[in-house]
């Protein structure tokens, strides 16, 4: 097995170095050469780099979104038709540049709105001012979006950030520990939906994610369910209330 891997890595490294751009990010190359199986192309090396750094990808994606800013006239709304690009539930992160009305088209990231350069990179290392017209995602934004929409898939990285301690009890995390949003997403929709779009993304990103033991999570979920019931009752009791828009 080791002989097979050594031979495969020799071929992959030769292929990677043969096509290596002089301006290829050194950090990505160093990462690629440390992998048990070396990625044979520059693009796969970039994808591997960000896949192993979901929290860094999240921070970068939110910073790029802040640089772009919220489109004029945009509001966080829910939709019922996937073709519009509107999220179907408040559990999905708001993404104005994925909406048909605000999409910037090829060459721009549909998550953060910034130009996409060669290999899905987020800055113009090649200094030619030419976005990749075949791309609509940054490599980093792909991983950030995966973290936002499926945080349990990144349990290991989140555990390491907390030094394997439960965020609520301070005790050691057990194997059954689960990922949780500190501020529940129903509360984000109810209480924070008018915030600027780049600020909203933090509720799906690392600042609002925590890993807690299953028992603590069950207690927190019970408290949140009681809070939602209270909110729903108050909303129904108000004459002319828009209960359908509350998402509760």
Assembly of the depicted chains? single chain
Tell me the structural class: mainly alpha
Distance between the termini: 54 Å
* Overall pLDDT level: 92
Give me the number of helical elements: 9
Protein name: HNH endonuclease
Write the layout of secondary structure elements.
Layout: H1 2-18, H2 26-34, H3 42-51, H4 54-68, H5 139-149, H6 155-161, E1 178-181, H7 185-191, H8 197-200, E2 209-212, H9 214-237
Antiparallel strand pairs: 1-2
Helix pairs in contact: 2-3, 4-5
Protein name: HNH endonuclease
Architecture overview:
With 248 residues, the chain is mainly alpha-helical. Among the domains are: 1-52, no CATH class; 150-245, no CATH class. It has helices at residues 2-18, 26-34, 42-51, 54-68, 139-149, 155-161, 185-191, 197-200, 214-237, and strands at residues 178-181, 209-212. A two-stranded antiparallel sheet has the order 1-2. Helix 2 packs across helix 3 and helix 4 (54-68) crosses helix 5. The protein is flat. The model has no long low-confidence stretch (mean pLDDT 92). This is HNH endonuclease.
């Amino acid at each position: 097995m080791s002989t097979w891997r050594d031979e495969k890595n020799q071929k992959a490294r030769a292929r990677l170095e043969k096509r290596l751009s002089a301006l290829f990010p050194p950090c990505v190359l160093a990462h690629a050469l440390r992998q048990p199986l070396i990625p044979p192309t520059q693009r796969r090396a970039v994808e591997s780099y960000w896949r192993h750094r979901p929290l860094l990808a999240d921070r970068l994606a939110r910073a790029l979104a802040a640089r772009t800013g919220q489109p004029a006239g945009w509001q966080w709304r829910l939709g019922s038709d996937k073709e519009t690009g509107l999220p179907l539930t408040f559990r999905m992160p708001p993404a104005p540049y994925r909406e048909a009305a605000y999409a910037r088209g090829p060459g721009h990231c549909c998550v953060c709105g910034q130009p996409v350069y060669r290999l899905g990179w987020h800055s113009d290392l090649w200094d030619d001012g030419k976005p990749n017209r075949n791309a609509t995602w940054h490599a980093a934004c792909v991983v950030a979006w995966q973290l936002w929409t499926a945080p349990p898939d990144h349990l290991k990285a989140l555990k390491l950030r907390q030094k394997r301690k439960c965020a609520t009890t301070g005790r050691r995390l057990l194997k059954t520990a689960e990922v949780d949003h500190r501020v529940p997403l129903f509360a984000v929709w109810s209480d924070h939906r008018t915030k600027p779009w780049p600020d909203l993304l933090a509720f799906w990103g690392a600042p609002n994610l925590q890993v807690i033991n299953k028992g603590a999570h069950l207690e927190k979920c019970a408290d949140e369910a009681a809070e939602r019931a209270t909110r729903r009752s108050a909303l129904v009791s108000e004459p002319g209330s828009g209960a359908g828009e509350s998402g509760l």
